[in-house]
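Researcher: For the record, we're logging two predictions in this thread. I'll number them. Prediction 1 follows.
Model: Prediction 1, sequence and structure:
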Amino acid sequence: MKKLIPFVGVFLFWSQFSFAAYDGVSYRIHQQYQSPRALGMGNAFVAVANDYSALFYNPAGLAFRENGELNLSFDLGATETFSTFSKDISSASDTKGTETEKQNAVFNAIQKQYGKSFGGRLTGPNGIYVGQGWGIGFIPLDVSVELTPNQPIAVNSTLYMDTTFAFGWADTLKEVENAKVAWGITGKMVNRGYFSKAVDAIELAADSNFVKTSDLKEGYFIDADIGILYKPHVPDDDSLYSWFRLARPTFGAVIKNVVDADAMGSLKLINKNADVSKPAKLTRVIDIGSRWEYPAMWIFGGRGTMDIKNILHPAFNLRKGLHIGFEFDWTMTTWWKGNYRVGLSQGYLTAGLSAMFTWFNLDVVTYGEDVGTYSSPKENRLFLTRFSMNF
């Protein structure tokens, strides 16, 4: 048996499947980095960007930081029936009898889930540090997978496996009529392992291997995100705009992956025998957004946000691009606090909560991804947990 990818194989049940020789189809908009805080509020975060994740959501937010923050974390998330689908295929592949009986068992297991979508996300131990005007991050392993049983009896399978190193820098511009403007840039190097293929019932019955290192396309990219944040000034003596002043609005925009080029080469970190191949590009997109604070009451405060994201992406439409969210803060003491969040992302409800006790943080979120076409949207709902420490 050929060597399987260590560790990731356990998470993605590599031993359950194998590939046919034709490409899979995916209409999902892949996110390079995800924050459970942002996901809980509909992934509308462009104009918030006030924590460590600003390095990847909007580097301009680094300019408004007043202190440093170190986050060490790892994530694990999947659709609710991800493991069930895995077990069904595994059991069918182990069916005793003739090859025809085994193929029929796999055929039936796929048919039973036809029209559904299954996904998973694993982000291995990683670290991000942000300070006043700068930040640095290293994410050794970020894996996302999408599996869609489809006709002719097959599973469309798409996987991304990214290793990312990023450095960000930001500064404020000269105030104009007391308005505050900041800009920032995050340079990044991303090594990507990628596949998108379709697995049919005959292949699944004949060989239980899902993917080998030789199946992965691999390449590295050097790219950058450029962001801006604008905080308008409203005179204190102007009652007409009193509500505007209380809301303390912020507006933001980001151009992500400005280079948008093919892979520069292969580092062969995943597939040692790979020639120079072309994994899926990072893809240039534009995100724009706004943020509105609402007055603090007792131990609670919070904000509302609205973004239009992934403009220019081939799979973009207004449904997939619209993100709306609300966040409610609560604080008992400086070392015991948290947040509740709700939102709308790509047409689907999101919800999340965070709790911080001293240095330890727990984030839990559920969110939906639209993996369908414009005329036939399809939800892939994931449940994700992040365990982290903040210093």
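Researcher: Logged. Prediction 2.
Model: Prediction 2, sequence and structure:
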Amino acid sequence: MQDIVFKTTRHIVSLIAEINELKGRIEGCGVKVAYKPALQKEAFLRNALGSTAIEGYVLSLPEVKALAAEKNPGRELNIAERAVFNYLAAIRFVQKASKKPFTQNMILKLHKITAEGTLKSGEAGEYRKIQNYVVDGLGSVIYRPPAAGKVIMLMQELEKWIKTKAIDYPAEIASGIIHYKFVSIHPFIDGNGRVGRLLGLWELLRRNFDTLHIFSVDDVIYRHKKNYYLALQSASGGDLTGWLEFYLEAVAQALTEAWKRVLEAGVVSMGKDITLTPKQEKTLSLLRGAGRLSVKELSAALKITVQGTHFILKPLQKAGIVIRTGGRKTGKYELTD
């Protein structure tokens, strides 16, 4: 594979620092909450929605959620539904395979899962045997991938780079490089964008970057689809600087949005490690909305006894998440800053 060329711009350095700070903040959040599966599910659905919508298979979030619940649809899916259903299965495959090394067979299997039933030509799970092209919305050719006869060699070089060189770069940089290098080879007749984004996710998982699985890069990319394609085109001359700046911006935004969802759900980073009960979650939500509440006010809102409310508050106080001002009976409770 050709040497990786990009400039370590101030913007890239700043984005890596921002990403590391956000990642550390999320992972170091002091409360392991019962709603984490819900955040993971939302990221899972948004990844599938975003990546398939980029390719024109547009469904609403409720429609994607309904498909995710159908392990074996008892009906015929239209092509957009099939693309999303496949992508959901492909994400599950990547999550399970994330600790395994990249191999040609794994990538072929990933493509088969992703593209089955959606290809206009070519076979799912097989490298192309003809020349393909990338066209714009008007049908004009904007990129001519390498000849079909070079695909296997180029994919072998990419596999070798991933196994031996990717570790030399931060995970988010390596993820962006793999994403770009794969789509530049364009080894399949169709489905290259979806598989490229999945390989980017695979690298993040493989490198333990996405430990909580609660952020969605593909959803961000979809909302900036035009800039996504422009950034990919900017790297066609061999300099990946512009592309990596875009990709890191997408990762940073995805983490920012994940952190906002964590805060909205009531997690406060206090360096403590507890698990919230549903009543404690509601207590934090009440305090966040009202500012300060007495134990009687909390008791009435929670519909439990005052003694039960004190029992709920005690571990939150011990963890430094909630503080009381005033006496035990007359004081008020509030969230710490």
